[in-house]
Amino acid sequence: MLEFLGDRFNQILFSGWQHMSLVVQCLILATILSVVIATLVYRSGALTSLANSVSAVGLTIPSFALIGLLIAPFGFGVTPAVIVVTFFAALPILRNAVVGLTGIDKAVIESARGIGMSRFRTLVQVELPMAWPVILAGIRVSAQMVMGIAAITAYALGPGLGGFIFSGLSRLGGANSLESVITGVVAVIILALILDLLLVGLGRITTPRGIRV
């Protein structure tokens, strides 16, 4: 195992960087899309129910099957990987964004409007900061989930550590096959822990002190 790691150390670091980059960029994209959609639907009960239903049903789609379906129109490589990871990343964030925005006390919103704040300023300066801890909780759940899904995108030749896993599984029983699988799995777990710690730090920095208290 040590020999395997030593011979491929630079490759493991590069694949780990690709894996983390894919997940982080897709998380940012998913967060933007989810928050925008949540701000458009949270004032409507029917649209809120629809958004929650979509997020629930979307999680039942097998990620492996979705990757396979995207190979035909988009081919192999980064594009299907980004689409799949962003899609699954957006689902928990969307649900939490809707919950966070709808859970704000109406009296707080009325107070903001009462002092002359427009609806947009109320959303940006009052509602979104108050909903941010709930949204961030969804981002943390999403990050852990898609860290594993990003490994599966190696089936479509996506970037990241999944290549070690699929390479090892394809020749299981051969030389270094088990070491390859273990390396990919353990590296994904380590990256997931690192990303979660970074998100915890982000929460401490970006959450208003009054809300933390």
UniProtKB/TrEMBL annotation:
<feature type="transmembrane region" description="Helical">
    <location>
        <begin position="146"/>
        <end position="169"/>
    </location>
</feature>
<feature type="domain" description="ABC transmembrane type-1">
    <location>
        <begin position="16"/>
        <end position="199"/>
    </location>
</feature>
<feature type="transmembrane region" description="Helical">
    <location>
        <begin position="20"/>
        <end position="42"/>
    </location>
</feature>
<feature type="transmembrane region" description="Helical">
    <location>
        <begin position="82"/>
        <end position="104"/>
    </location>
</feature>
<dbReference type="Pfam" id="PF00528">
    <property type="entry name" value="BPD_transp_1"/>
</dbReference>
<dbReference type="InterPro" id="IPR000515">
    <property type="entry name" value="MetI-like"/>
</dbReference>
<dbReference type="InterPro" id="IPR051204">
    <property type="entry name" value="ABC_transp_perm/SBD"/>
</dbReference>
<protein>
    <submittedName>
        <fullName>ABC transporter permease</fullName>
    </submittedName>
</protein>
<keyword id="KW-0472">Membrane</keyword>
<keyword id="KW-0812">Transmembrane</keyword>
<feature type="transmembrane region" description="Helical">
    <location>
        <begin position="54"/>
        <end position="76"/>
    </location>
</feature>
<keyword id="KW-1133">Transmembrane helix</keyword>
<keyword id="KW-0813">Transport</keyword>
<dbReference type="InterPro" id="IPR035906">
    <property type="entry name" value="MetI-like_sf"/>
</dbReference>
<feature type="transmembrane region" description="Helical">
    <location>
        <begin position="181"/>
        <end position="202"/>
    </location>
</feature>
<comment type="similarity">
    <text>Belongs to the binding-protein-dependent transport system permease family.</text>
</comment>
